[in-house]
């Protein structure tokens, strides 16, 4: 039985992974995606530098490929990501005027999310906007608009696809413990924004873990999940992929009622953005690793 099937039998929506066109065209990789995963997240094709590398010049080729492949193979999609300081083209980074940046965010978010309306389960509308102390990370968005860029982005997203669940996503939020500054800061801000009517449905915790951090996931994720309607682990990979650490991490979501699913950040170690750390569930020969088998037998 696949982990995705086990997840669904446990009342979750999916067990997913990231991919993009190259990996979809790799036969062995595609077989694993079909057999083992219920949701796909575009690893890079949905980012601003790909989607709108120059103003109003939209390129949806790669993301269309991913979404079409997912639909033909009955996979859910997590959209990733509209507003992020990284993989952000220079023409956006250079904007200094509030009204201009507001209009640019609105156009980008509504064009990207609107194109896939009805086809995407969840969107990472805003990605990695907090600093390690739980304040706003410096970026063109926060520097020009302050925290208001969050409302601007989420309102545009809601309008563009009223049925998608809208997420705020970040890293180092479940790794360090529930009292970590970034975790408590995210909780404080998201609570405030939801109370103020900003249409945030979910909190995403990336979970790119170092050794020994899995023990902190349950308490931190519980605290984060308490402040939004739903939550998810969105980019899981764990240095060395120790079986017990994978089980502890994934189980945290399983045990939290409104945690809807887990996404691992890739299938096979050599295709990982952290390839040298062998952090994934399949090895270079496309064989399941001990962590995979432990998840199947323990969940
Ligand atoms: C990574 C991709 O995996 C790499 O291929 C790319 O070179 C850089 O971005 N947080 C995120 C993801 O939200 O989009 C990042 O993905 C990993 C960190």
What layout of secondary structure does this protein have?
Layout: H1 3-9, E1 14-19, H2 21-24, H3 27-36, E2 39-42, H4 48-51, H5 61-72, E3 76-84, H6 90-93, H7 98-115, E4 122-127, H8 140-145, H9 148-160, E5 165-170, H10 181-195, E6 202-205, E7 208-209, H11 217-225, E8 230-238, H12 243-255, E9 259-264, H13 290-298
Parallel strand pairs: 1-2, 1-9, 2-3, 3-4, 4-5, 5-6, 6-8, 7-8, 8-9
Question: Explain this structure to me?
Answer:
The protein is 41% helix and 17% strand. With 299 residues, it is an alpha/beta fold. It has a single domain, classed as Glycosidases (TIM Barrel, Alpha-Beta Barrel). An 8-stranded parallel beta barrel has the order 1-2-3-4-5-6-8-9, surrounded by 6 helices. Helix 11 (217-225) packs parallel to helix 12 (243-255) and helix 12 packs parallel to helix 13 (290-298). The N and C termini lie close together (11 Å). The site of (3S,4R)-3-hydroxy-2-oxopiperidin-4-yl beta-D-xylopyranoside (XIL) has 6 residues, from loops.
Query: What is the CATH C level class, in words?
Result: Alpha Beta
CATH architectural arrangement: Alpha-Beta Barrel
Contiguous low-pLDDT stretches (5 residues minimum) are none
* Integer-rounded radius of gyration: 18 Å
CATH H-level name... which superfamily?
Glycosidases
Strand order of the largest sheet: 1-2-3-4-5-6-8-9
Structural class: alpha/beta
Main sheet, how many strands, which sense, barrel?
A: 8 strands, parallel, barrel
Mean pLDDT score: 98
User: How many helix segments?
Assistant: 13
Please give the share of residues in helix. Answer: 40-55%
Give the N-terminus to C-terminus distance in angstroms: 11 Å
How many extended strands?
9
- Describe the global form: globular
User: Structurally, how many domains make up the residues?
Assistant: 1
Q: Could you say what the CATH topology is called?
A: TIM Barrel
Q: Give the amount of beta strand, in percent.
A: 15-25%
């Amino acid at each position: 039985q696949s982990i995705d099937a086990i997840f669904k039998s446990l009342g979750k929506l999916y067990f997913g992974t990231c991919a993009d066109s190259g990996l979809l065209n790799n036969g062995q990789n595609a077989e694993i995606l079909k057999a083992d995963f219920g949701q796909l997240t575009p690893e890079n094709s949905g980012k601003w530098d790909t989607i709108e590398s120059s103003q109003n010049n939209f390129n949806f080729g790669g993301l269309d490929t991913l979404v079409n492949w997912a639909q033909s193979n009955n996979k859910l999609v997590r959209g990733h990501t509209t507003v992020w300081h990284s993989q952000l083209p220079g023409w956006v980074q250079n904007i200094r005027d509030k009204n201009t940046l507001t209009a640019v965010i609105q156009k980008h978010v509504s064009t990207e999310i609107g194109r896939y309306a009805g086809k995407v389960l969840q969107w990472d509308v805003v990605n990695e906007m907090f600093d390690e102390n739980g304040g706003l990370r410096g970026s063109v968005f926060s520097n020009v608009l302050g925290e208001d860029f969050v409302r601007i982005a989420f309102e545009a997203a809601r309008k563009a696809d009223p049925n998608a669940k809208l997420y705020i996503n970040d890293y180092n939020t479940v790794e360090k413990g529930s009292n970590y500054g970034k975790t408590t800061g995210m909780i404080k801000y998201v609570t405030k924004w939801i109370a103020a009517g900003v249409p945030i449905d979910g909190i995403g915790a990336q979970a790119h873990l170092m050794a020994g951090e899995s023990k902190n996931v349950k308490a931190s994720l519980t605290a984060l999940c308490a402040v939004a309607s739903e939550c998810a682990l969105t980019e899981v990979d764990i240095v060395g992929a120790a079986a017990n650490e994978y089980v502890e991490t994934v189980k945290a979501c399983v045990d939290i009622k409104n945690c809807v699913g887990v996404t691992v950040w890739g299938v096979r170690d050599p295709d990982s953005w952290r390839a040298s750390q062998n952090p994934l569930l399949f090895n270079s020969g496309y064989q399941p690793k001990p962590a995979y088998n432990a998840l199947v037998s323990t969940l």
